[in-house]
Amino acid sequence: MKGSPGMSDAIRLHGVTLSHDRHPAVHHLSGAFEAGSLTAIVGPNGAGKTTLLRAIAGLHPVDEGRIECPAGRIALLPQMSALDRSFPISCLDVAMLGHWRRLGAFRSVAPAGRAEAEAALEAVGLAGFARRPVGSLSAGQFQRLLFARLLVQDAPVILLDEPFNAVDTRTAADLLRLVREWHGQGRTVVAVLHDLELVRREFPETLLLARDPVAWGGTEAALAASNRLRARMMAEGWDASAGACGRAA
Amino acid sequence: MPYDLLIAPFAEFGFLRRALVGCLVLSVAAPPLGVFLMLRRMSLTADVLAHGILPGVAAGFILAGLSVTAMSLGGLVAGLAVTLGAGALSRATGGREDSALAALYLVALALGVTMVSASAGSVELTHLLFGSVLGVDDPALLMMAGVATLTLLALSLAWRPLVLECFDPSFAAAEGARGGAWHMLFMALVVLNVLAAFQAMGTMMAVGLMMLPAVASRHWARGVGGMAYAASLVAILSSVTGILVSYHLDVPTGPAVVLSAGAAWIVSVLAGPVDGVLARLFRRRHLAG
Fold first, then answer.
1. Residue B176 and residue A101: Cβ atoms within 8 Å?
2. What is the 3-state secondary structure (H, E, C) of A81-106?
3. CA dihedral sign of residues A216, A222, A223, A224
4. Do B224 and A89 touch (CB under 8 A)?
5. Which of A19, A112, B139, B215 is the most exposed place for a label (fewest CB within 10 A)?
6. What residue intervals traverse the membrane (chain B) (predicted)?
7. By C-alpha distance, which of B23, B43, B255, B21 is closest to B129?
């Protein structure tokens, strides 16, 4: 488990419990994502991985405990299936949504902001797509576009929910290169992933989650066979009719 | 000959001119709202609202007769109650919002018809249900024009947050864009426009000029802005066509306008450049390189 929270933390979790309809999705999770760390969140389906990311981004209510984010702004890449990919909007407009914090609802986009968005499109391999409607993109290209929006957002903390799902291997490789760049720039990156080989290869830290935190720390130790077995048993053994949790927060 | 067909009726009859102005005013503001409703997969919500306002309108009618102010105020209260009530109901019951809406509007429609029937005859009931485009008076016209002006102003201010809230509400929430507040403003505009349309088209066909042009616009433009313009244009053409057809063929005006919009929708599905049937059959050759 992670040690006590320190000064160089990007995100701190203090006994965080999250639930859907009173059924806990994440149970009494404490710890911290260090500033500049690159962490994978893995675990069985229904382990609360997406819920945890959404809670950190402020999109899911925290039942108990508290989440602090001393690092400041957070950018979240949602699961692709959450978006309407036939929406009548151009690629450039989607990338420029990344400026929202600076522009809000009313301020106009300066030429520099537009140039940033165009540069972001180029960086994700979508040069020349600015005026194309998103409906004409493949799943992989759409994911590249969402990464372009993350680039424009320029946030110190980046949360990725299954970033490489449903994309082709070349796109995944290109996007992974961006993740490495973010890590190199000292940003804090947290990604929900399923591919354990990829996690072992690219992510120094891992949080193994099965509603209750199973392990959090260096990837090799966290993904040890004993931990993975424990996670599976916890996920399967959870009783749907369990009584209220008696543990103190 | 074209003069007799297209211009003479309006030159000759004041009530046709008023009907034309009323429909054109509706055509400018309501269809862009319809585009947003369609993009949010809420195409049926406007219809639900149009039925849902009936008890409020009926209450206004019982208190003050066929007064635009009283009926509009009553309808406004009922419309906002249905909008907020459906959201609260679906959260409270853990059900889906569409089932809550369906239940609400059936109850509202039955309640409204009962209230009007209890206090007036079938002429008034027909008037409230189906409207009379040819009977819009000055207060109704002013109300419709006022709503349209307010709607266009609000849309031009709230355009960006509305598009964002439609496309990616999670992103809007994470970035602190107050998507919920913008959505409430938007729904209030929809209620106002349904009320304005109700003055001319009655409760059953009030949303004809809002949704049909919006659905048709999908086949003419690839951006939200283009779709809004296309929807208004379709509504304007349908209004003029519908009024002229109703005059020359002696059919009721409201249904004729909505049928014209329906015809425009069918033409759009068939011949529209974006995902139209013909465009799919005869694909242009792809660009070289």
1. yes
2. HHCCCCCCCEHHHHHHHHHHHHHCCC
3. negative
4. yes
5. A112
6. 19-39, 46-64, 70-89, 101-120, 140-159, 180-198, 228-249, 255-278
7. B255
Give domain status of residue A168, yes or no. no
Same structural domain, A144 and A86: yes
CB contact under 8 Å between B168 and A21, yes or no, is no
Chain A residues with CB inside 8 Å of B217's CB? Answer: none
- Both A195 and A210 in one domain: the answer is yes
Helix (H) or strand (E) holding A209: strand A205-210
Considering only the beta carbons, identify the residue of B158, B175, B222 that sits closest to A100. B175
Kindly report, residue by residue over B116-173, the tens digit of the pLDDT: 999 888 888 888 888 888 989 999 999 999 999 999 999 999 999 999 999 998 899 8
pTM: 0.89
Whether A88 sits inside 8 A of B177 (CB atoms) is: no
Using CA atoms, how far apart are residues A83 and B242, in angstroms rounded to an integer?
38
Residue B81 lies in a domain: yes
Q: Is B29 domain-assigned? A: yes
Domain that holds residue A50: 1-72+187-249
- Identity of the residue in A83, A90, A135 whose CB atom sits nearest the CB atom of B168: A83
Chain A residues in contact with B36 by the CB 8 A cut-off are none
Say yes or no for a CB contact (<8 Å) between B167 and A83. Answer: yes
The count of structural domains within chain B is 1
User: What does chain B come to in residues?
Assistant: 289
Domain count along chain A: 2
In single-letter form, the type of residue at position B47 comes to: D
For residue B232, what is the domain's CATH number?
A: 1.10.3470.10
Q: pLDDT per residue over A134-158, tens digit each?
A: 999 999 999 999 999 999 999 999 9
DSSP A77: E
Among residues A1, A41, A28, which one has the least CA distance to residue A192? A41
Residue A5 lies in a domain: yes
Contacts of A94 in chain B (CB under 8 A): 167
Q: What is the ipTM of this complex?
A: 0.85
